[in-house]
Amino acid sequence: MTGELTVAIGGLGAIGGHLARALDAGVEGLRLVAVAARDPEKAQRSIEGFRAPPAIVSLPDLAEHADIVVEAAPAAVFEQIAEAAIARGRIFVPSSVGALLPRMHLVARARETGARIVVPTGALLGLDAVRAAAEGRVESVTIQTRKPPRGLEGAPYLIEHGINVLGITEPTIVFKGNAFDAAKGFPANVNVAAALALAGIGPERTMVEIWGDPTVTRNTHTIQVEAEAARLTMTIENVPSEENPRTGRITPLSILACLRGLTSTLKVGS
Ligand SMILES: NC(=O)C1=CN([C@@H]2O[C@H](COP(=O)(O)OP(=O)(O)OC[C@H]3O[C@@H](n4cnc5c(N)ncnc54)[C@H](OP(=O)(O)O)[C@@H]3O)[C@@H](O)[C@H]2O)C=CC1
Ligand SMILES: O=C([O-])CC(=O)C(=O)O
């Protein structure tokens, strides 16, 4: 153990709610001290029965309370959480990773304030191997995402292009392009592509395919990396969470594992 770190969470939905409950149940070296959500009364109900109820605060105030600020809210409010956490020199752990891509100035700002931005693997897999490969020469990185159509509903790219995903009756490719454009067009759907881009060769060179696929029940991501040191092919099939079908159940678990890695004496994986 390297000492206790306090944690604040912005958002108490599929990710934040699960994470808050897990931290309150007890995780060595981590203590939940503050949460924020849109509706404070709903937030109060979410933390009812907690052993040590955290303070309910506003999004920017999370950073005043804790060493680690976890963002688990819609991409639209990402900046409110991120800017305050980084200005205050905290460890900032984003879930809405797609929202970080057009805001890379936050990394430069963190360098000035002493903050850290720790991107969890989230709903993806294998970012340790991608990072290792990217220490050498990488030819290409691609990710193919297949989701049940309702998991893509409402994405700005689909609305702009008049694509009705709910009408899809067979596997259909709805987007092909780089990770930067994917994150812009699907801000609530392809955080995994953004994390992959940051782990490897950047958002311009990381190529993304998004499929609406009525034959799958899980959010399925397949990564292919062609590098000098290795060829990687990896697939993860995520069970959608009950609270939000866009979000795989593994996501809060990955963030919890990431937070443990910030305090644990034994840490496995790069
Ligand atoms: N990195 C990854 O691998 C993954 C990332 N994600 C991303 O993580 C983020 C969170 O996902 P998820 O937990 O499923 O989302 P949910 O929709 O389940 O929960 C969102 C939470 O944010 C709160 N919220 C909404 N608007 C505001 C606001 N204006 N101010 C304060 N709080 C607000 C909601 O509060 P209330 O309940 O009061 O409305 C709710 O508690 C999303 O951006 C999602 O795309 C998702 C899956 C994987
Ligand atoms: O697979 C998931 O659960 C979520 C997802 O695609 C993402 O946010 O990128």
TrEMBL record:
Keywords in alphabetical order: NAD, NADP, Oxidoreductase, Pyridine nucleotide biosynthesis
GO molecular function: aspartate dehydrogenase [NAD(P)+] activity; NAD binding; NADP binding; oxidoreductase activity, acting on the CH-NH2 group of donors, NAD or NADP as acceptor
E.C. code: 1.4.1.21
Domain Aspartate dehydrogenase: 168-255
Catalysed transformations (reactions): L-aspartate + NADP(+) + H2O = oxaloacetate + NH4(+) + NADPH + H(+); L-aspartate + NAD(+) + H2O = oxaloacetate + NH4(+) + NADH + H(+)
Annotated Aspartate/homoserine dehydrogenase NAD-binding domain residues: 11-120
Active site: 221
One protein family per Pfam: Asp_DH_C
GO biological process, one term: NAD+ biosynthetic process
Origin superkingdom: Bacteria
Keyword Cell wall biogenesis/degradation: no
Gene3D superfamilies on file: Dihydrodipicolinate Reductase, domain 2, NAD(P)-binding Rossmann-like Domain
Residues the entry annotates as binding NAD(+): 123, 191
Other notes: The iminoaspartate product is unstable in aqueous solution and can decompose to oxaloacetate and ammonia.
Role of this protein: Specifically catalyzes the NAD or NADP-dependent dehydrogenation of L-aspartate to iminoaspartate.
NCBIfam families: PRK13302.1
UniProt cross-references to PANTHER family, sorted A to Z: ASPARTATE DEHYDROGENASE DOMAIN-CONTAINING PROTEIN (PTHR31873:SF6), L-ASPARTATE DEHYDROGENASE-RELATED (PTHR31873)
Family membership: Belongs to the L-aspartate dehydrogenase family.
Protein name: L-aspartate dehydrogenase
Gene name, Swiss-Prot/TrEMBL: nadX
